[in-house]
Amino acid sequence: MTKKERFDKVFPILEKKFGKAKAALNYETPFQFMIAVILSAQCTDARVNIVTKELFKVVKNPEDIRKMDIKTLEEYIKSTGFFRNKAKNIKLNAQMMKEKYNDKLPRTIEELLVLLGVGRKTTNVILGDLWNIRQGIVVDTHVKRLSNLIGFVESDNPEIIERELMKFVPKKYWFEYSHYLILHGRDKCVARRPKCLECEINKYCKHGQKLINK
DNA sequence: CTCCCGATAT
DNA sequence: ATATCAGGAG
């Protein structure tokens, strides 16, 4: 079975299961969304939402961050981990957005990557979630793990994985592909203890195959 | 490659 | 105690 044929088997199952994909991160403004995605690095979105519930009461735009003391910002976001780096990056970005982007979030990969703490994954999330721009595929820890388990890719490198996926995943599904794998990764294919017996796609997965052969 | 780093499930 | 969580920079 080719990867494309494999995709055609697996994707409809996930599509039926999850339907319309929507971000789990809470926000009101694009700038707030950028902050939320930066905070989500190596942290659960549930934790990010707890933190941003308070932070976003006082932070709506870059100016609010610029006038906020960095220590205050660190206190707000401490529980998300990596808080010193994240606070520093968010502060620098608020400054950079004023100088380069007229206090607005840019809409191209190149311009977004200039911002600190914004890499390939964050860029794809922002473009896709905020403006429905599909220039790439989000490869986070879940997409990486599940794509390997299902046999779509054989790599640990997110950039290689993204390139391989783009070869056989139809462009119209780039956005949904990531969302479904992330949702399924949180629901059934949890890294710590995957629930293979309940998994809807276990016959297409390396873990699931082992289970069936026992 | 290492470092950043707290919260949580197991 | 340890692995893992919508990663990124040096």
From TrEMBL:
Per the record's keyword annotation, is DNA damage included, yes or no?
yes
Q: Which Pfam families match?
A: EndIII_4Fe-2S, HhH-GPD
Asked if the keyword Repeat belongs to this entry, the reply reads no
The record's free-text note on cofactor binding = Binds 1 [4Fe-4S] cluster.
Annotated keywords: 4Fe-4S, DNA damage, DNA repair, DNA-binding, Endonuclease, Glycosidase, Hydrolase, Iron, Iron-sulfur, Lyase, Metal-binding, Nuclease
Binding-site list for [4Fe-4S] cluster: 189, 196, 199, 205
Q: Which BP terms does GO give this entry?
A: base-excision repair, AP site formation
Q: Name the needed cofactors.
A: [4Fe-4S] cluster
Q: Name one GO molecular function term.
A: DNA binding
The HhH-GPD domain, residue ranges: 39-187
Please give the catalytic activity noted in the UniProt record.
2'-deoxyribonucleotide-(2'-deoxyribose 5'-phosphate)-2'-deoxyribonucleotide-DNA = a 3'-end 2'-deoxyribonucleotide-(2,3-dehydro-2,3-deoxyribose 5'-phosphate)-DNA + a 5'-end 5'-phospho-2'-deoxyribonucleoside-DNA + H(+)
EC nos: 4.2.99.18
The cross-references to InterPro entries, in alphabetical order and at most eight, read:
DNA_glycosylase, Endonuclease3_FeS-loop_motif, Endouclease-III_FeS-bd_BS, HhH-GPD_domain, HhH_base_excis_C, Nth
Name the HAMAP family on file. Nth
Q: Tell me its family.
A: Belongs to the Nth/MutY family.
Function statement: DNA repair enzyme that has both DNA N-glycosylase activity and AP-lyase activity. The DNA N-glycosylase activity releases various damaged pyrimidines from DNA by cleaving the N-glycosidic bond, leaving an AP (apurinic/apyrimidinic) site. The AP-lyase activity cleaves the phosphodiester bond 3' to the AP site by a beta-elimination, leaving a 3'-terminal unsaturated sugar and a product with a terminal 5'-phosphate.
Q: What is this protein called?
A: Endonuclease III
Originating organism: Leptotrichia rugosa
At the highest ranks, the source species' classification is: Bacteria, Fusobacteriati, Fusobacteriota, Fusobacteriia, Fusobacteriales
Per the record, the gene is: nth
